[in-house]
Write a structure and sequence with these properties.
- With 481 residues, this protein is an alpha/beta fold.
- It has 3 domains: 129 residues, Rossmann fold, CATH 3.40.50.620; 125 residues, Serine Threonine Protein Phosphatase 5, Tetratricopeptide repeat, CATH 1.25.40.80; 173 residues, DNA Cyclobutane Dipyrimidine Photolyase, subunit A, domain 3, CATH 1.10.579.10.
- The protein has 20 helices and 7 strands.
- The strands form 2 sheets. The protein has a 5-stranded parallel sheet, with helices on both faces.
- The longest helix is centred in the middle third of the chain and has 23 residues.
- The chain starts with a strand and ends with a strand.
- Bound molecules: flavin-adenine dinucleotide.
Amino acid sequence: MEFVWFRNDLRIHDHEPLYKALEGDQPVIGGYLFSSRAHEWSEAGFRRQSAKRSRFEVESLLALHQQLSQLGVPLLLREGSAMEEWRTWLNEHSITRIHAYTHPGSEERDDEQALKEIAEEFGIQVIFYEGDTLLHPDDLPFEMEKLPGGFTSFRKKIEDKDILPRKPLPPPYEQTPFMLEEQEKSGKELMSRFRELEASIYVSGGEQEALRRLYDYYYGSKHVLTYKERRNGMLAMDDSSKFSPWLANGSLSPRTAYWNLKQFEEEHRANESTYWLWFELLWRDYFHFLLRQKGDKLFLQSGVQGMEVEWEKDITVFDKWRDGETGYPLIDAAMKQLSATGYMSNRARQNVASFLTKNLGIDWRWGAAWFESQLIDYDPASNYGNWQYVAGVGTDMRKFRAFHVIKQGERYDEKGEFVRYFLPALKHVPNEYIYAPFRMPEDVRKQANVQLGIDYPFPIVNLQESLDKRQEVYKQATFKK
Ligand SMILES: Cc1cc2nc3c(=O)[nH]c(=O)nc-3n(C[C@H](O)[C@H](O)[C@H](O)COP(=O)(O)OP(=O)(O)OC[C@H]3O[C@@H](n4cnc5c(N)ncnc54)[C@H](O)[C@@H]3O)c2cc1C
């Protein structure tokens, strides 16, 4: 019997392990391990995986379970430590070969190691495939150890050599339905998990949902043609593709996203916006390759630069950031959006990360951990890579840079629609003050019906003073050899 281990690749199309397993003449079964790490607690006092992320995971698995049934493939589920659960599976089923994608995260690699060890004990072959990125690692024009230290030179190397993603695989074969008692049990378990999770998220999980969004964004609404102009928007669904949650858990293969984009360009039009979507997908690849190159350094406080900066660990201040109570509307609206929906735009992510690290001076890993818990598109490489980048300890380290969170709001949400949506207390504040309500004169404040300190907080820091202070701290940074 052939076994396909599903991980962050919850789809049936363009799925090499599944394709290869079904190509043979042995019956195929699939399996998924719910990670016990989801229940762990972070240093800053919250669960590593929120109900929102769990809900997206379960929805994606329900869809996968159904798709696999149509191929005649049962899906087994287990929860616990990889080593023990593998032992149970291998004892209960006569598995001869295991197929799985490899994933670059440190914990994911630990799980792979656990599988390798146990498979050796049982004398079973394990085949790992590469498939989390748009470009196949073997097609890169350099060795992984020579990955450029900055995104721009990475992108140029790819574009100069005209390296393209490989084409997606043909649809998978079907097999004569292969029934296992556990199959029905898995369906019931997923339904009961689903019912328990009352979380609000902005998209639904599963490959069909991903493809629906893809076709609508390209062919239906054709919003992809205005991506470059709109992508800094923070509120509307169509400000950007919103492919990220499905890419993160593999319901959508990046190659499918790319080759459909190419087809759209051929049938309709190519413009700067369609190019920019490829550009952003390359950013994702860059962080995934960086994780392969740097390993654990992507998760260390000193970052890939080995830069030792002094960080604050003030839980009261952190909680104000986390709960959207900083007195800076751009930050507060964005943090409330994250808690309410499991999403935040790229523009807002950059600002809240900059504010936490460059104004509040809080350990960037606390912020990254909160994102990990809340984002339904959480992806270890993109999350920790971007956090390091904004915190100034990652790639492309330039001189101390920070976002001015008032000016950014005024620039990217001129009419204050984003803020008013998530901070109803500021509904009647005139545009002029919407990003700095503390500047409102008394008469305007009265008219807007906002009492600072009661309806909306006073700023927790002075922007310029806190930046100056942090800059001094960064100047004292030392570098690990
Ligand atoms: C501090 C911080 C943390 C982040 N954490 C994550 C994360 O955990 N998971 C995640 O998928 N993205 C993360 N991002 C990147 C980016 O914000 C999201 O990918 C994007 O907002 C998702 O929305 P979208 O799909 O509409 O993106 P679009 O703008 O439509 O972009 C298309 C795709 O390109 C990729 N992409 C775009 N920008 C980036 C980027 N800066 N880095 C890597 N890939 C990118 C994503 O896969 C995205 O789905 C983070 C960014 C920051 C600044």
